[in-house]
Amino acid sequence: MNKPNLRYLLLFSISLFVSSVQAQQTFTIEDVILRAKAQSPFSKQAETRRENRYWGYRSYRTTFNPQLVLQGTLPSYSKSVNPILQDDGTYKYIPVEQTFNNVRLGLLQPIFATGATISANTSLNYFKDYSSLNAGEQWSGSVMNIELEQPLFAFNPLKWERKIQPLLFEESKREYVEQMEFISEQTAERFFNVLQEQIKLQIAKFNLANNDTIYKIEQGRYNIGTTSLDKLLQVELQLLRSRQAVGQANLNLETARLELRTYLGLRENDAFPELILPENIPTFEVSIDEAIAYAKKNRSQFISFERQRLQAQRDLAQAKGNRFQTSVSAAYGLNNNGVILNDVYQNPLEQQQVNLSFSIPVLNWGRNKAMMKRAIANKKLTDYIIEQDEVTFEQDIMTLVRQFELLRLQIEITKKSDAVAAERYNVAQNRYLIGKIDITNLNIALEEKDNAKTSYIEALKSFWTSYYQLRRLTLYDFASKTLLYVESAN
Fold first, then answer.
1. Interval 291-304: pLDDT, tens
2. With CB atoms counted within 10 Å of each terminal CB, which end of the chain scores lower, N or C?
3. Given a cut of 50, is residue 229 above it in pLDDT?
């Protein structure tokens, strides 16, 4: 490759690098929000909470699977002098040296429909006495043992957990999307806080330059006797206020940038991006009924309402089931013992057991009745609270939807007002320079120009924050007509 081509390639590469750096330093509101969702401390917290709830749900799911458990004591050795009861009722202290080892392998399976527990296990025990009088060893064990434990007329926690836990998991998945949209809403607000302070600083610097020029003009007029000292002092005071305004605007801008930097998780050596004012607002129509329908379909709060009702019903069922407790248990197995290990498994003997146990309070001074009444009252309170929360939530959506048309109108009006006020100030400034108006009228035009600009930015801020708030409340983007949350398999 010749030198001219190499030089052109180098210049082209440098231009691409400069363009990429400039592109990285210029952020739209969407760019800032994407960065906040990707790396901000709040997004990482939301991601960690979602992961925590996922593994919590996975842990719950394992309770319905069979559990294979190996238990035992290997070894167990003791050597001591123990009191041994004799035939005549006296005690004799005899040195005892023994070992007793055991191991058990069991398979446990809960049955959620009835609350029963069925288990199958096998066990093996080994005992040895080292004393000179009773020296010897013995094996014993259960070749096979099957047990069933069935509560009767009792509260079944597995049945209720099977209803409630999937709702909690689904609620957590929707909460994660809502938290991401809340991050969008908060980022948009901080984004506009920086833009507002940037524009206020620009206004303050512009006003300082103008007031400095006006002061010099008034000073010249005063020197030739065409204006009074009072007007000159008034202009000088305005100039001093402008300098103070520039200093305050610089401080406010640094504070707003620091707040946005902290929220985004930017490091100290990361350059602060240049923010672009989002004047092109999305156009879409949204009805109250449509917004409420999407909210009821997608929001975690409506899953929470159903979950809270089930929890109240569960507490009532638990209060009823705890009034008295009855259970039946049955077991069947084969066991044996012998002096050698093989004896345990030779012709084992049958082992059978059936128990019916109950616990019925005869006198508890109305304790069970009070617990029942309390559970009933809590269920009623839960129903009333949920009913009120549903009404309040729908009212919030109605208010927000009705604001959108007004927000669009405000943007149009304030944008036009900004242009008119800027033109009016230019006219007033020219008239002041030729002596047609005094400094007071010029300051009024200046104040109206500044107010019009800040009102336009405030209108844009209100629209964008309301837009992301609507996304959060409905989990639906009306601009792109897409769902922000799509149900997936557990």
1. 999 999 999 999 99
2. N
3. yes
